[in-house]
């Protein structure tokens, strides 16, 4: 009989939680749980998902000890894995992250440019508090973190907790891309062994081997350049995501070396992306009117009907599957390969050792064993170093309360560049974030 695990989901009221719960149900044989707690600071929001969860587990996981709480002391006792997906400031602040830069002629996006900067400056404090809360009662728990902007959160946690080897920051976009490649090639995603390098939301696949050792990347690049590119779950995606995937073919035409992460388009084609963004109806509005509304309505309706059967609450399988598979690979020392965020230390040989890079790694009981990629060519090195400097200055601005470093950070961001523009955007974001950011002097 395998060991059974105790899990806490932080951000129980997240739009992604129901998908995660379904992924846990799906894997109850291979990754059995003894206890699951949902934790959130917003009781009302979490209760909707929590009541849905209770019903779901009655139906699909009856022996599971399930509860939800806003009490951190209660949540983090006796925990093996923390799955974290919080959003400090909620969609209300995401909307400002997107609209304030746009009102000044700069791209506003959840994790890229000044929007990602503003969000990072909000996430750092709450993520530090979370790690401290967990460590107080569960010093050995694995903290698997999705909270964005993952690049900045990862760098801040590295700096604050340098000796903590059980914090792992992850992103589902590489696996979304791998699943999309699998659909195009009509292959199983589990056959792939990828080689990847970069920062979070800022990386490239350089090879994609199959079990026979054939590199599928050349074939994939040819298909995408000729036929275009769609997400694996295209049928469930909003129009803005379909456009985002389509632009991968443009990136390949201009930079044919590797297969790029979709997020690179904000940095490579800022004029085009700016022209596609509506300053009065941004992605935050699209999510609030779409995913958020749908998830909460569906959960409420299922509870009223007394059954979760047929309730469609999963909008992206990759997200829930990834975090559960990561936990399973660690728990049972499976050494499966995932693309994860780790400290560089020579993995990308010609980049700063302390940068938090995103690369392929096997995951087991000792954590990630990442694969190095050697030296990277000048173009990619230049792109990454500029973004790394922006990210590092952002966390330094937070820890030091430094306006000067915040201004340097935004000036270095490829979506801003002009220092006068950087100052204007920064001042407007400081005003909007005064309840969340440290004071910058
Ligand atoms: P959401 O606003 O629907 O959910 C976030 C939840 O976190 C809310 O219920 C909120 O009350 C709660 N929360 C806020 N601060 C908290 C704190 N300090 N402690 C505990 N709970 C807190 O947002 P969402 O769209 O579902 O996204 C959740 C998070 O997951 C975001 O950070 C998002 O960017 C991230 N995400 C990351 C990836 C990735 O690839 N890394 C993928 C998807 C989502
Ligand atoms: C991808 C990214 C995440 C991002 C998510 C949702 O999966 O990897 O980091 O949070 O998309 O973005 P959305 O705009 O749909 O909320
Ligand atoms: Mn991501």
Descriptive report:
The protein has 441 residues and is α/β, with parallel strands linked by helices. It has one domain: Lactate dehydrogenase/glycoside hydrolase, family 4, C-terminal (L-2-Hydroxyisocaproate Dehydrogenase, Chain A, domain 2), CATH 3.90.110.10. It contains 16 helices and twelve strands. A six-stranded parallel sheet has the order 3-2-1-4-5-6, sandwiched between helices. Strands 7-8-9 form a three-stranded antiparallel sheet. The protein has a three-stranded antiparallel sheet with strand order 10-11-12. Helix 2 links the parallel strand 2 and strand 3. Helix 5 crosses helix 6 and helix 6 crosses helix 14. The longest helix is centred in the N-terminal third of the chain and has 25 residues. The protein starts with a strand and ends in a 9-residue tail after the last helix. The site of manganese (II) ion has 5 residues, from loops.
């Amino acid at each position: 009989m395998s060991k059974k695990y105790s899990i806490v989901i932080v951000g129980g009221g997240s739009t992604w939680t129901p998908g995660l719960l379904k992924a846990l149900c799906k894997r109850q044989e291979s990754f059995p749980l003894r206890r699951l707690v949902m934790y959130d600071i917003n009781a009302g929001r979490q209760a909707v998902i929590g009541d849905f969860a209770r019903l779901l587990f009655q139906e699909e996981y009856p022996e599971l000890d399930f509860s939800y709480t806003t009490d951190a002391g209660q949540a983090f006792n006796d925990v093996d894995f923390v799955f974290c997906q919080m959003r400090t400031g909620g969609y209300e602040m995401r909307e400002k992250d997107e609209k304030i830069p746009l009102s000044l002629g700069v791209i506003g996006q959840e994790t890229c440019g000044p929007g990602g900067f503003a969000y990072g400056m909000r996430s750092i404090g709450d993520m530090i508090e979370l790690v401290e809360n967990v460590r107080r009662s569960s010093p050995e728990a694995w903290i698997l973190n999705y909270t964005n902007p993952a690049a900045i959160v990862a760098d801040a946690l590295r700096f604050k907790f340098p000796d903590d080897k059980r914090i792992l920051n992850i992103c589902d976009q590489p696996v979304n891309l791998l699943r999309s490649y699998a659909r195009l090639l009509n292959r199983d995603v589990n056959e792939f062994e990828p080689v990847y390098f970069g920062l979070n939301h800022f990386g490239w696949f350089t090879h994609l081997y199959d079990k026979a050792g054939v590199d599928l990347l050349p074939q994939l690049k040819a298909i995408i350049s000729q036929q275009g590119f769609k997400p694996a779950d295209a049928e469930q995606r909003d129009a803005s995501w379909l456009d985002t995937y389509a632009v991968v073919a443009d990136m390949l035409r201009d930079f044919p070396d590797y297969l790029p992460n979709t997020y690179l388009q904000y940095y490579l084609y800022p004029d085009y992306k700016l022209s596609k963004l509506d300053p009065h109806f941004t992605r935050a509005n699209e999510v609030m009117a779409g995913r958020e509304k749908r998830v909460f309505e569906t959960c409420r309706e299922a509870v009223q009907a007394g059954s979760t059967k047929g309730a469609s609450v999963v909008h992206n399988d990759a997200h829930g599957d990834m975090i559960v598979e990561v936990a399973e690979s660690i728990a049972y020392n499976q050494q499966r390969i995932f693309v994860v965020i780790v400290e560089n230390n020579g993995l990308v040989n010609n980049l700063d050792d302390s940068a938090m890079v995103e690369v392929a790694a096997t995951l087991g009981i000792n954590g990630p064993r990442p694969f190095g990629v050697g030296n990277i060519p000048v173009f990619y090195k230049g792109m990454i170093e500029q973004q790394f400097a922006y990210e590092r200055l952002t966390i330094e601005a937070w820890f030091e309360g430094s306006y000067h470093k915040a201004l340097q950070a935004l000036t270095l961001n490829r979506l801003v560049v002009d220092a006068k523009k950087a100052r204007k955007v920064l001042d407007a974001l400081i005003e909007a974030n005064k309840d969340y950011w440290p004071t910058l002097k």
